[in-house]
Amino acid sequence: MALKKNSMWLLISYLIVSICLTIIDHYFRTSSSLYYLLTIIGVTGSIAMYFINRQFATYQNWLEKKSVSQQQSLILGFGGAVLLLATQQLCFWLENLVLHQTDASQNTAAMLAIIKHYPIYLLYVLIAAPIMEELVFRKVLFGNLVTLTSPFIAGIISCLLFSIVHADGHFLTYAAIGGMLCWIYAKSGRIQTSMIAHMVMNLIIVMLSFK
User: Fold this and answer.
1) How many CA atoms lie less than 13 Å away from 210 in the CB half-sphere?
2) pLDDT tens digits for the chain (211 residues)?
3) Could you please report the per-residue DSSP string of 102-161?
4) Which residue in 134, 166, 170, 198 is the catalytic one?
5) What would the DSSP string read from start to end of 70-118?
6) Set 133, 134, 170, 198: catalytic member
């Protein structure tokens, strides 16, 4: 019952935030306040989802029953960010070699362009998106789903949906990043670890782009 409630409320919360973001984007697309509103809704939604997950703190899915220490979690989180960046570059290279795709991500390019003009959007990129995506794609669609099926099937489902949501042509890259984040979560037993890895990866990408 706790597993169902945890999954249900996190998915409902994510759906509500996504609908709100879509409505704001539609009605304020030409407004200078667009990215301020998107950031406020995203950050508020991510914090709400984080505390909703905390309401089920006594419930642990199969992956979380053996979690590492906070120190190990931090090490794995920061080290995981490096692995994520290496995975991204390797997949870009493979996509270019086999599929003749450019190694430029449309999502990343759009994100950096927005941040350049609206620095507040950094809060969405570095806080809101990683928290919400880790709670949905790693916690619900991988960690909780493992209880009902095998880690391999749960991982495939999580990675495929993660890649579809980020659809910009780099299907392999996002699927591989999703898989690496699943591994970080499973290795640590803490969803906070994959959140840290996700946040640090985004931060490094932004810093390298504006150096």
Assistant:
1) 17
2) 788 889 999 999 999 999 999 999 999 999 999 999 999 999 999 999 999 998 877 778 889 988 999 999 999 999 999 999 999 999 999 998 888 888 777 888 899 999 999 999 999 999 999 999 999 999 999 999 998 889 999 999 999 999 999 878 889 999 999 999 999 999 999 999 999 999 999 999 999 988 6
3) -S--HHHHHHHHHHHH-GGGHHIIIIIHHHHHIIIIIIIIIIIHHTTS-HHHHHHHHHHH
4) 166
5) HHHHHHHHHHHHHHHHHHHHHHHHHHHHHH---S--HHHHHHHHHHHH-
6) 133
Tokens of 90: 């390797």
Residue appearing with tokens 């409320």 = 9
The CB density around residue 90, as the number of other CB atoms within 10 Å, is: 13
Say whether 133 is catalytic.
Answer: yes
Task: Please indicate whether residue 117 is annotated as part of the active site.
Answer: no
Span between the terminal Cα atoms of the chain, in Å: 49
Give the residue carrying structure tokens 């998915």.
Answer: 11
Phi/psi of residue 26, nearest 5 degrees: -75, -45
